[in-house]
Amino acid sequence: ASLATRPRQDNSTFYEIRTYQIKPSKMKDFVEMVNKHLHLRTAHSELVGFWSAELGAMNKVFHIWKYDNFAHRTAVRQALANDKDWQGKLISEVLPFVEMQHNEVAYLAPWCQLGKPPKEGGVYEWVTFQMKPGGPAVWGEAFQAAINAHISTGYTKLIGVFHTEFGLLNTVHVIWWNESPDHRAAGRHSAHEDARVVAAVRDSVRFLESQQNVLLIPLQCSPLK
């Protein structure tokens, strides 16, 4: 299967990807407050993961929320607006720490299941690809081949491939897990010498506008650790 131009899954499930820029002097306080009180938020809907940037970005956090459909998200947002504990113990406390908020709605690629790391204690790599206009009907097959080529090397674990529906279109977020930054570096060096990877990347890069890689550390409260 390849990426499609219709919704990226057979069901209505989607993922809201949120990125916050935190004031540098408040990053430690923000993380502490989130770890302490995020259970008030996860009581309303499912959190996939919550990470802070270590390399490739500064003072940023990334989190992903899963929804059954848009009506589900609307109901959750209404419940949160009326949740005095959530509003008082976390939102009102951390909002002054936040300089910027950005959200996107994305679907999982239909050929990708949301994965989990084989063990705790590793690091995550968040790779954002801005693809050329035209959608997955144009670049989906080549992109999938490049992802599969990296998977075949065995040095990294795929967590998820998300394609935006709201936000900047033709954006694909790919999340990988590695045991450590050094393990990732060694694997990348080997992959660059793998003929399968080289050929697949050469084909897919024809459709690429830009790419950004960020190394992430999961927060204590994150389901994906």
UniProtKB/TrEMBL annotation:
Cross-referenced Gene3D superfamilies, in alphabetical order? Answer: 3.30.70.100
InterPro entries, A to Z: Dimeric_a/b-barrel, NIPSNAP, NipSnap_domain
Q: Which GO biological process categories is it annotated with?
A: mitophagy
- GO annotations of cellular component type: mitochondrion
Q: Which Pfam families match?
A: NIPSNAP (PF07978)
Please report the stretch or stretches of sequence annotated as the NIPSNAP domain: 15-113, 124-223
Q: Which family does it belong to?
A: Belongs to the NipSnap family.
Q: What is this protein called?
A: Protein NipSnap 3A
